């Protein structure tokens, strides 16, 4: 009779009890259906053949002596068969038997299984279905997650026995539900070395345990962290949080950290917008408009000569940056009286705006270890970002020519007004180059992480993963080219002698932006203790691992100064560390 058949009787077969022999010794056990909670003795106190049947997890009534004064416990799991006996030869409930799965695969209670056949949950990826009950080896579920869900419904929780194969899932541990791998997917014999049982992660964390408050063991598995290509994703094969001392142990496992993703490269910065040109003044006295600017570094408007007195040119602007702007030119002298022998004078030109200062290059993080945030996940340290270039100053507007009024009674040959020529508008400043994107840090690779926990790792081989490389910093944008000034106009003689307007000043070029820093490479660590955690290790090996390479800093942008002075480059990112074990605050 195979293990599956035995379990069929032990865990709910509704047919009559069967007598079955195990092993060469011919040990005989009477199997009692859990479907009939009244199955057992005949109620006679003198009957020495008492059997103890059981209901399901919520039905703990047993047959036997009617005078038994023991109270039933509705929360106690007595589901199982009478497949063992104590030192007096009396039958023992399956869940009261002792046969914890061990590295040697020993069947210590002679039920044909390393473990308790009638008090376990079975998982088999090859033939199982999550629609099955999972409490018999020939009726297994297909996923570890479903096995844990079933096991946790019992009190106390049952162990989950997992057959060889690859399980592509995230495993969320539950308190008191231990997992044992290494079982043959046909006969359920246990050999953790021959029957590889793999948990392959597809998300950042492959195995998660949070707040475990009853002893939970994971034994006989290969646990593989997920691998990523980009996005700076980190990978954690085993991640335990808020678990007290003595409540979690990893034993006889292989833990393989996945490969973390590379950090993304920063995009290059946009070049600064070129400044608009100032417009020419008009002979009718109107000043030319200042050059326009997308960043507010406008040129000053030309002075107005249409009235008396004429006005000077307006000052340029720098869009709020500290760049020196061009001051508007003074107007020509106006004569607003009735003298016939005076005349307006010519105006002064507007001043040029200054060139914007280059931005600064970004700096990389000085500490290559990174840190763990409040969510218990790793984050890279960061340096300082680059700054954009300053906008060039707008040129000042040219002044208007002097206005002249000749209207006296003695102005017989030249009577009237002289309209001053309009001043030219100042050129706008070029906008500063924009910064690019910072190089993003590479992800990190971890085998085991304990956050605010005290755990054990025994008889386990850890294979460290490859951390992700940092992304390259974005190049800084070039400064925008400055706008040129408009010219001043000659005055119009309508009976007076006006002055001529003058041209505005040119705008200053924009400064180049600094290059952004490269992202730091991620770290590769075997065992991490966070926040005062304790990880007790025994017979643990560490193999491999590579830290991520820091990304290259971006190139600084060019200042629009006619010479091509470049802004500073960003720093290269730091290389990530490698360590077997590391403590983080």
Radius of gyration: 43 Å
Mean pLDDT, all residues: 86
Tell me the total number of β-strands. 26
- Helical proportion? under 10%
Characterise this structure:
This protein has helices at residues 3-10, 144-151, and strands at residues 18-22, 27-31, 84-85, 91-92, 121-123, 160-163, 165-168, 171-172, 179-183, 197-200, 205-210, 216-219, 222-224, 235-241, 248-251, 254-256, 371-372, 378-379, 404-406, 416-419, 445-451, 454-466, 492-494, 524-530, 534-546, 578-584. The protein is mainly β and 585 residues long. The strands form 6 sheets. Strands 5, 6, 7, 9, 10, 12, 13, 15, 16, 22 and 25 form an 11-stranded parallel beta sheet that branches.
Task: Offer a quick outline of the entry.
With 585 residues, this protein is an all-beta fold. The chain has helices spanning 3-10, 144-151, and strands at residues 18-22, 27-31, 84-85, 91-92, 121-123, 160-163, 165-168, 171-172, 179-183, 197-200, 205-210, 216-219, 222-224, 235-241, 248-251, 254-256, 371-372, 378-379, 404-406, 416-419, 445-451, 454-466, 492-494, 524-530, 534-546, 578-584.
């Amino acid at each position: 009779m195979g293990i599956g058949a035995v379990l069929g009787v032990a865990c709910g077969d509704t047919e009559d009890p069967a007598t079955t022999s195990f092993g060469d010794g011919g040990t005989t056990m009477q199997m009692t259906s859990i479907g009939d909670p009244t199955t057992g003795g005949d109620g006679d106190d003198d009957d020495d053949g008492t059997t103890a049947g059981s209901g399901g997890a919520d039905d703990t009534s047993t047959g036997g002596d009617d005078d038994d004064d023991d109270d039933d416990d509705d929360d106690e799991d007595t589901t199982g068969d009478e497949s063992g006996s104590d030192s007096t030869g009396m039958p023992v409930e399956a869940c009261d038997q002792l046969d914890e799965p061990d590295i040697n695969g020993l069947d210590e209670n002679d039920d044909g299984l390393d473990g308790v056949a009638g008090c376990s949950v079975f998982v088999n990826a090859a033939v199982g279905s999550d629609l099955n009950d999972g409490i018999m080896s020939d009726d297994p579920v297909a996923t570890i997650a479903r096995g844990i869900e079933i096991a946790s419904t019992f009190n106390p929780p049952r162990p989950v026995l997992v057959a060889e194969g690859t399980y592509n899932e995230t495993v969320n541990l539950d308190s008191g539900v231990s997992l044992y791998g290494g079982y043959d997917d046909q006969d359920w014999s246990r050999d953790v070395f021959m029957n590889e049982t793999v948990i392959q992660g597809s998300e950042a964390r492959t195995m998660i345990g949070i707040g475990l408050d009853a002893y939970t063991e994971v034994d006989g598995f290969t646990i593989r962290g997920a691998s990523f290509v980009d996005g700076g994703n980190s990978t954690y094969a085993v991640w335990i949080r808020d678990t007290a001392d003595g409540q979690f142990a990893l034993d006889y496992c292989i833990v393989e950290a996945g490969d973390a993703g590379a950090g993304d490269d920063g995009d290059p910065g946009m070049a600064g917008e070129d400044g608009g040109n100032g417009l020419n003044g008009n002979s009718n006295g109107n000043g030319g408009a200042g050059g326009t600017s997308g960043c507010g570094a406008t040129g000053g408007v030309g002075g107005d000569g249409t009235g008396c007195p004429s006005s000077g040119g307006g000052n340029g602007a720098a869009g709020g940056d500290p760049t020196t702007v061009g001051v508007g030119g003074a107007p020509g002298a106006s004569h607003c009286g009735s003298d016939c022998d005076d005349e307006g004078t010519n105006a002064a030109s507007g001043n040029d705006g200054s060139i914007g200062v280059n931005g600064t290059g970004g700096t990389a993080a000085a500490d290559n270890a990174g840190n763990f945030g409040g969510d218990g996940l790793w984050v890279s340290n960061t340096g300082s970002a680059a700054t954009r270039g300053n906008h060039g100053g707008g040129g000042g507007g040219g002044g208007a020519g002097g206005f002249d009024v000749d209207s006296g009674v003695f102005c017989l040959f030249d009577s009237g007004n002289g309209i001053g020529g309009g001043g030219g508008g100042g050129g706008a400043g070029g906008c500063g180059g924009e910064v690019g994107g910072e190089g993003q840090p590479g992800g990190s690779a971890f085998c085991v992480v304990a956050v605010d926990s005290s755990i054990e790792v025994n008889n386990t081989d850890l294979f460290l993963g490859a951390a992700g490389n940092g992304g390259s910093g974005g190049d800084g944008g070039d400064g925008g080219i400055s706008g040129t000034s408009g010219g001043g106009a000659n005055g119009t003689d309508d009976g007076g002698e006006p002055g001529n307007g003058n041209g505005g000043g040119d705008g200053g070029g924009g400064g180049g932006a600094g290059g952004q820093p490269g992202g730091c490479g991620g770290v590769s660590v075997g065992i991490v203790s966070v926040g005062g955690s304790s990880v007790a290790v025994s017979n643990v090996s560490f193999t491999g691992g590579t830290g991520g390479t820091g990304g290259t800093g971006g190139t600084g942008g060019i200042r629009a100064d006619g010479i091509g002075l470049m802004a500073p480059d960003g720093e290269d990112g730091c290389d990530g560390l490698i360590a077997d074990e590391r403590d983080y605050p």
